[in-house]
Design a protein that fits this description.
68% helix, 2% strand, 182 residues, mainly alpha, disordered C terminus
């Protein structure tokens, strides 16, 4: 259960980082376009006011083009998806283990009932199984089922058949899911 909480917490951090990166990218792209327009306008105005006989000092050498990999939202989504899958694997494992334990506990109970044990000791074993062990194992199994459905509601980017992210209108396309923080 501790692993599940760690992965869920990590997903929350990843999700917030992706939101932050998206915001920063939008702001940087807006500023990049503004700087390019400003440089172009200043250079044009300098040429117009300088006339034919005067040399002008143009704004040059300022690199405002995008750099691949400088800030990668794709890498953030990939990390998020890997962590999401780890969480899903842990949740499925929890539910499966709880189900197996429940079967084993029921076998133990049936074996105890069929055993040659007599008296209070046999009753104490059955009571312990029924009162303490079975409810805890059923609780873990139920928690696994609930967690599995909640993991299915975590945001997920749409991917094509090759596993690459799908973009729509310049943005990463998402499944229609609302993120629920832990």
């Amino acid at each position: 259960m501790a692993n599940i909480k760690i992965h869920a917490s990590s997903l929350s951090v990843h999700f917030q980082n992706m939101r932050n990166i998206n915001g920063v990218l939008d702001d940087v792209n807006s500023l990049r376009h503004a700087v390019k327009a400003l440089i172009s306008t200043v250079n044009h105005n300098a040429n117009v006011t300088a006339g034919e006989n005067r040399s002008t000092i143009k704004i040059e050498g300022i690199d405002v083009e995008k750099k691949d990999g400088a800030i990668s939202i794709v890498a953030a989504y990939d990390a998020f998806d890997r962590t999401r899958q780890l969480l899903l694997d842990e949740v499925v494992s929890l539910a499966d283990i709880a189900n197996k334990h429940l079967y084993e506990v029921n076998c133990l109970r049936n074996d105890t009932l069929a055993s040659s044990l007599n008296g209070q000791f046999k009753k104490d074993i059955i009571e312990c199984i029924d009162r303490y062990i079975v409810p805890r194992v059923k609780q873990a199994e139920s928690a696994g089922i609930v967690l599995r459905s909640e993991v299915g509601e975590l945001p997920a980017a749409v991917r094509d058949v090759d596993g690459k992210l799908v973009f729509e209108n310049g943005q990463i396309k998402h499944h229609d899911v609302e993120f629920r923080s832990q």
